[in-house]
Amino acid sequence: MYSLFYASRYFSVTGKLNKALSGILTSRMMLHIFPHPFVLVLFFSSYLVTRASNNHFYNDHTATGANWMLHALRHISVGVLCVIIVMSAALRFDKELQLTLLRLAKNKSS
Q1: What are the respective helix, strand and coil percentages of the chain, to the nearest 5?
Q2: 8, 33, 34, 66: which could join 26 in a potential S-S bond, CB 3.0 to 4.6 Å?
Q3: How many other C-beta atoms lie within 10 A of the C-beta of residue 58?
Q4: Angle, to 10 degrees, between the axis of helix 18-33 and the axis of helix 2-11?
Q5: Cα–Cα distance measured from residue 77 to residue 63, given in angstroms and rounded to the nearest whole number
Q6: Residues near 53 by beta carbon (within 8 Å), at least 6 away in sequence
Q7: Taking the complete model, does pTM exceed 0.85, yes or no?
Q8: Tell me: the pLDDT tens digits for 89-110?
Q9: Which are the contacts of 49, defined by CB distance < 8 A and separation ≥ 6?
């Protein structure tokens, strides 16, 4: 938070409106830090799904002595599916991420 305050103070204009513009610049910087709201919802949903998967597939069945490897693989596959869904949504909705990846691919090819 301090670095955002420092950056906004550094790039803001001097004068009477300095504090107001600094606050606006800080709030804009804060908004650009977070991904698209849909991606945030998917992050949270992914956490809940993998937590439930851990409790259902892994913890419940390892306590009974069942084939723990099969249940662990099921839990891992749920986690991989969640990562794929969140990453595809991030690539679809986050314009900054798209631009950054395009720049990286362009620099890599040249």
Answers
A1: 85, 0, 15
A2: 8
A3: 18
A4: 130
A5: 20
A6: 74, 75, 78, 79
A7: no
A8: 999 998 888 888 889 888 877 6
A9: 78, 82
